[in-house]
Write a structure and sequence with these properties.
By secondary structure, the chain is of the alpha/beta class. 36% of the residues lie in helices and 16% in strands. The protein contains six helices and six strands; from the N terminus they run ααββαβαβαββα. The protein has a six-stranded mixed sheet. The termini are far apart.
Amino acid sequence: MNLMRNTRKTCPVSGVPRKQQRVSFRASGHASAPFALLKLGVLFALAGVCSAAGGSDWKTVLLDRLPLYGHRNWIVVADSAYPAQTATGIETIYSDADHAEVLNVVFKALANSRHVTPIVFTDRELNFLPENDVPGITSYREALKSVVGDRQINALPHEKLIEKLGQVSQNFRVLIIKTKMAMPYTSVFLQLDCAYWTPEQETRLRAIAAANH
């Protein structure tokens, strides 16, 4: 899959021309001021959604967030039709980049991290997509296994994963990086776990704590 640059002059989320996202206004009276403030807030929110779109800004966001994230945070590399969820704990950015590129950058960043490691989830539906309905999906599945390496891939129904993110984001931050991918059920969900403390070590600790209760 080759990276294709998006030269659109509008925000891919809001449809607002980027030049119009720089807003200034003057309230001419008391009645118009609340409406003007509301309009300004909406436009600023839309501009914020697109602030990391295009170029290499999404990489900057990823590298900025990663030191702050720990176990129970999530990073999602999403296909282009993935929905913008309303939970305040979810941050969604548009990369304007190829799905394979984003996956490789994210996994490389996590491999270089000393404090977190990913638990990989994909949509269960991905396993059953036929090549005649989604040309190229077989090659994608093979490429994904190559990127993931020897990590286990956990498959859950798409709706369950969306629901899980909605629940998790009530207490923990989630970063969703949308790509230009136009094949269904290709999003990759990464639940971060502690890189320097294994589940086996946690089990032993809990057993010792219980024995000394």
